[in-house]
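Exercise 7b. Backbone tokens:
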């Protein structure tokens, strides 16, 4: 089975993340590592309080009617309010925890399963993430339904169709 790394799309190496200090580079490198056992461990499927869940949400197949929708087709729903007052800009770097699923419920990526948050510039991720994270404030957790046009656009070797992510915005970094 092929595993997908959001962090690999984000930064091919720590050098690709301009302005990354040594501490953040270690986090980026760790986020790019794959632990297949953690990805598929059924015992790890329970939700961790305060972090995005590992098991697929019940509404993974389609956004619920009460989800917010943007003009681009991105749908989202706030899961937990944040205590921050700032929202990131498309040019900011962020620290996040996330889990991602296909609409059939198959989890394909999770910083939670790896046990380490991811750090990356919003300008280096799929368009749905860049747009969606700008809707959040620090500390907030939100679920995104990202249409294929805002995700991997049918690129070979990446998940196809709409993707669902639970994202916790931990911090906006300098």
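Sequence design result:
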């Amino acid at each position: 089975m092929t595993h997908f790394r959001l962090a690999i799309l984000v930064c091919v190496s720590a050098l690709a993340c301009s302005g990354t200090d040594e501490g953040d580079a270690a986090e980026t490198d760790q986020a790019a590592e794959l632990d297949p056992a953690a990805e598929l461990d059924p015992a790890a499927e329970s939700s961790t309080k305060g972090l995005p869940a590992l098991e697929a949400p019940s509404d993974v197949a389609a956004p619920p009617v009460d989800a917010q929708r943007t003009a681009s087709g991105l749908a989202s729903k706030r899961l937990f309010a944040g205590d921050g007052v700032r929202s990131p800009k498309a040019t900011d770097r962020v620290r996040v925890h996330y889990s991602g699923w296909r609409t059939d419920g198959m989890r394909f990526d999770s910083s939670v399963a790896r046990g380490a948050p991811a750090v990356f510039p919003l300008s280096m991720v799929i368009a749905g993430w860049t747009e969606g994270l700008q809707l959040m404030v620090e500390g907030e957790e939100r679920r995104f339904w990202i249409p294929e046009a805002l995700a991997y656009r049918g690129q070979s070797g990446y998940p196809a169709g709409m993707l669902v992510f639970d994202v916790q915005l931990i911090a906006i970094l300098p």
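Instructor comment: The chain has one domain: 6-40+52-173. Residues 61 and 104 are 6 Å apart (CA to CA).
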